[in-house]
Design a protein that fits this description.
The complex is a heterodimer of chains A (115) and B (112). By secondary structure, chain A is an all-beta fold. Chain A has strands at residues 4-7, 10-13, 19-25, 31-37, 43-51, 54-57, 64-66, 76-78, 87-94, 96-97, 100-101, 105-106, 110-114. In chain A, strands 2, 4, 5, 6, 9, 12 and 13 form a seven-stranded mixed sheet that branches. In chain A, strands 1-3-8-7 form a four-stranded antiparallel sheet, with no helix packed on it. By secondary structure, chain B is mainly beta. Chain B is built from no helices and eleven strands. Chain B has strands at 4-7, 10-14, 19-25, 32-37, 43-49, 55-58, 61-66, 71-76, 85-91, 101-102, 106-111. In chain B, strands 2, 4, 5, 9, 10 and 11 form a six-stranded mixed sheet that branches. Chain B has a five-stranded antiparallel sheet with strand order 1-3-8-7-6, with no helix packed on it. The N and C termini of chain B lie far apart (40 Å). Classes of the chains: A mainly beta (115), B mainly beta (112). At the A-B interface, β5, β11 and β12 of A face β5 of B.
Chain lengths: 115, 112
C-alpha cells in the first residue's frame, strides 16, 4: 500500500492564482482530513470528510474548498491565493474502529508559498 | 473552548537524561494520540491511548493517560540524539468521532 499520497510536493503561487492540492489514499479509509501547519506551529483543520459525498468545515476553512467524489480522493482547492495561505498542507485519513477513530495516517505534505 | 496544551513547547537536553513532556486537555476524552514529526517531514503515529490508565512503551519512550486528570505524559528515558523531533499530542472529544484536537507540539533537541 502506498498509504496517503499528496501532489505536488512544492508549489509557488502568485497572489490571486488558484490551484488544487491532490490527496489519495489506498487504505479504504472513510475519514479524510486536510490540515495546514504554519512554521513552528501545530496543525489546524481546514476541512474533513466522513465518506464519499460528505464534507464539513474545520477550524480554518475560509479560502478553501473540498470535494469527495470517491473514497480514495479528497482534493483541496485554493481560490484566489493569498500570502496568508503560505503553509505546509497535510492530508490524512483514518478509519473508525468499534471504539472510535483510530490514529490518522498522514501524507508527506505539500509546501505552498504564495508571493 | 476545546484546548490541548503541551508543556514545555521547547526542550533542549543532553543525551542520557530523562525527561517528561506533558499534555493537558480541556475536554472529556478517553482517546489520546502521540505523534512525532522530524524537521521538514510528515507526522508519524507513536502511541494510541484508548482508556484511563493506559500505558504504552516503545524503546526509550513511554506514554500514559489519566483521563480523570485530563493529562497524558510522554516520558523519555536515557535520551539519545535520534529522538530529536517535534512531538504532538491530540485528543478526540467524547462528543466527536471525527476530529482530533491538536496540541502545539514540543520541539525536543537532544545534544550529543
Amino acid at each position: 500500500n502506498a498509504g496517503v499520497t499528496q501532489t505536488p510536493k512544492f508549489r509557488i503561487l502568485k497572489i490571486g492564482q488558484s490551484m488544487t492540492l491532490q490527496c489519495t489514499q489506498d487504505m479504504n479509509h472513510n475519514y479524510m482530513y486536510w490540515y495546514r501547519q504554519d512554521p513552528g506551529m501545530g496543525l489546524k483543520l481546514i476541512y474533513y470528510s466522513v465518506g464519499a459525498g460528505i464534507t464539513d468545515k474545520g477550524e480554518v476553512p475560509n479560502g478553501y474548498n473540498v470535494s469527495r467524489s470517491t473514497t480514495e480522493d479528497f482534493p483541496l482547492r485554493l481560490e484566489l491565493a493569498a500570502p496568508s495561505q503560505t503553509s505546509v498542507y497535510f492530508c490524512a485519513s483514518s478509519y473508525r474502529s468499534r471504539r472510535g477513530i483510530v490514529e490518522q495516517f498522514f501524507g508527506p505534505g505539500t509546501r505552498l508559498t504564495v508571493l | 473552548e476545546l484546548k490541548v496544551e503541551q508543556n514545555p513547547l521547547f526542550l533542549s537536553m543532553q543525551e542520557g537524561k530523562n525527561y517528561t513532556i506533558y499534555c493537558n486537555y480541556s475536554t472529556t476524552s478517553d482517546r489520546l494520540y502521540w505523534y512525532r514529526q522530524d524537521p521538514g517531514k510528515s507526522l508519524e503515529s507513536l502511541f494510541v491511548l484508548l482508556s484511563n490508565g493506559a500505558v504504552k512503551q516503545e524503546g526509550r519512550l513511554m506514554a500514559s493517560l489519566d483521563t480523570k486528570a485530563r493529562l497524558s505524559t510522554l516520558h523519555i528515558t536515557a535520551a539519545v540524539h535520534d529522538l530529536s523531533a517535534t512531538y504532538f499530542c491530540a485528543v478526540v472529544p467524547m462528543d466527536s468521532n471525527y476530529q482530533l484536537i491538536w496540541g502545539a507540539g514540543t520541539k525536543l533537541i537532544i545534544k550529543p
